[in-house]
Each structure stands twice: as C-alpha cells, then as structure tokens.
Amino acid sequence: MDFRLGDAAALPFRSGRFDAALAVTVLLHVARPQAMLRELVRVTRPGGVVGLQDQDFGTQVLDHPDRALTRLIFEGVAARMYPEPYSGRTLVRRLVELGLERVRLLADVYQVRSLDPFTHSLLKRRAEIAMRFGLIGARRAAGWLDAIERADAAGHFVFTFNYYGATGSKPGRSARG
After folding, report:
1. How many domains does the chain divide into?
2. Radius of gyration of the chain (CA)
C-alpha cells in the first residue's frame, strides 16, 4: 500500500488508474463533495467500482425521556460539526448522478442496549459539544446524561444510528476485462 496526502478534489493520478476507488466516512466532512466524487470516478477504470460509506446523523435514536432536548443536542451538534451530517442517505443519489451503473446500497445499524464505554463516551462528548456551542447549559447536560445512566441501570437503554454503504460501476469496458 502507498499512502498519500492530498486534495481529494484534484487527485494526482491519471484517469482510469484504479480498479476501485473508496471513500469511507469522508463525505460528512466535506462541504461540497461533488468535485471529490468526480475525481473518484475519473481515476477509476471503465468497469471499475466506486464505493462510498458514511454515517447519517439524522438516524440517531436514543430512548430518552426528554426527546426535545435529545433532538436539540443531536441535531444541533451535527449541524455545527459536520458540513454534510446527513450524507449517508445521499450516497445512492450521488452515485447515480455521477452516471454509475448497478448502484447498490447496504445499510448497517449500530445498536447497543447497554452503555458501553464507546457509546458512553460518544454521548458524553455530544453533551459537552452542545455546551461549547451554547445549545445547552451544564445543568441540562448533566441531567440529560444522568437520565441515560439511569436507563442503563434499569436495563432499558437503547441507542442506534445508521451507516450506509453504496457502490456503483463506472460505465464502459476495461481494457483488462
């Protein structure tokens, strides 16, 4: 493998160089991903595959007694942290619009029924970031987290969010195939 750092909107490779191009959890961080996506298609050979995978922060579900506060934290933080927080749901459309064929979708649900260290850290960071952005105060954040810990202790904690993956084939026949 050869790792390179560069501008995804201007890849330093000739057209048709690769059998496949892949972007994993990238789109949500890019304000206007169209140029990057065109580059992925450009460097993929005819008949090759372009693959995308991203979360969709609009699919976060937490069984919490204060739904309005949970929505404020989840949506407010996502909107301020990520240029494209709902990118997962756009993958198929983006590949079709790029002219790719045989576009496929795979959805995977991250789901937990107990407050494991990863999930606890993620939710705690969401509350901290919501405070930093001025969405909520420390008291509301602490109460939100306390309710989460109580739900876990009572055995009814539920948190999920979706990841989406999509692939499409670049039209044409490869000289290799």
Report:
1. 1
2. 20
For residue 1, pLDDT over 90 is answered with no
Kindly state the average pLDDT of the residues 124-135: 97
Residue 11 lies in a domain: no
The Cβ of residue 57 has, within 10 Å, a number of other Cβ atoms equal to 21
Tell me the per-residue pLDDT of 57-105, one tens digit each, with 9 for 90 and over: 999 999 999 999 999 999 999 999 999 999 999 999 999 999 999 999 9
Tokens linked to 132: 């930093």
- Asked if 101 and 168 count as a contact pair (C-beta separation under 8 A), the reply is yes
Both structure tokens of 38: 């065109």
Q: Is residue 9 included in any domain, yes or no?
A: no
36 exposure class (CB count in 10 Å sphere: 0-12, 13-18, 19+)? middle
Closest CA to 112 of 152, 78, 72, 149: 152
**Does the CA dihedral 131-135-139-140 come out positive or negative?**
negative
Instruction: Look at residue 3 in the predicted model and tell me its pLDDT.
Output: 83
Q: Could you give the percent of the chain with pLDDT greater than 90?
A: 91
Q: Which helix (H) or strand (E) holds 60?
A: strand 44-62
133 is in which domain, residue-wise?
Answer: 18-169
